[in-house]
């Protein structure tokens, strides 16, 4: 059992309780500090490193009495999706999405391959669209006919196909 999957529901419940509390202005002024730009950059960098460490390090706790396994380098798309869902979705919607993600997580490799295949097909379809160059040549008033002020030439790029 991977302990990382317990973090998104805990975060969602914490955000729900924190948003439901009405903190008075005195308490909120104590909690909110003024940070300099350097301190803010260091805090953001530290949080990003912790999130990357969290996403790439698996903590597996077996159900029987064997040692806990820490395995670096195991990235999980399902975990990343559930973490983003816990941050951006309301609690009622999060739980439905979280259960769906957990049910589909054994097939995440197949879904990732399908997504890559879809993007390759989409890229191939975009490459099939012909490229047209439109050239507009403006002539002087003396040499131009009174009926036409500019000349338009359409051409197809022959290098793409």
Question: What this model shows, in words?
Answer:
The chain is an alpha+beta fold. The protein folds into two domains: 3-101, no CATH class; 130-156, no CATH class. The protein contains six helices and four strands; from the N terminus they run H-H-H-E-E-H-H-H-E-E. A two-stranded antiparallel ribbon has the order 1-2. A hairpin with an 8-residue loop joins strand 1 (57-60) and strand 2. The two termini are 52 Å apart. The chain crosses the membrane at residues 6-23, 35-57, 77-105. This is Pentatricopeptide repeat-containing protein. Keywords: Membrane, Transmembrane, Transmembrane helix.
Write the layout of secondary structure elements.
Layout lengths: L6 H14 L4 H7 L5 H20 E4 L8 E4 L4 H12 L2 H14 L3 H21 L3 E7 L11 E7 L5
Antiparallel strand pairs: 1-2, 3-4
Helix pairs in contact: 1-4, 1-5, 4-5
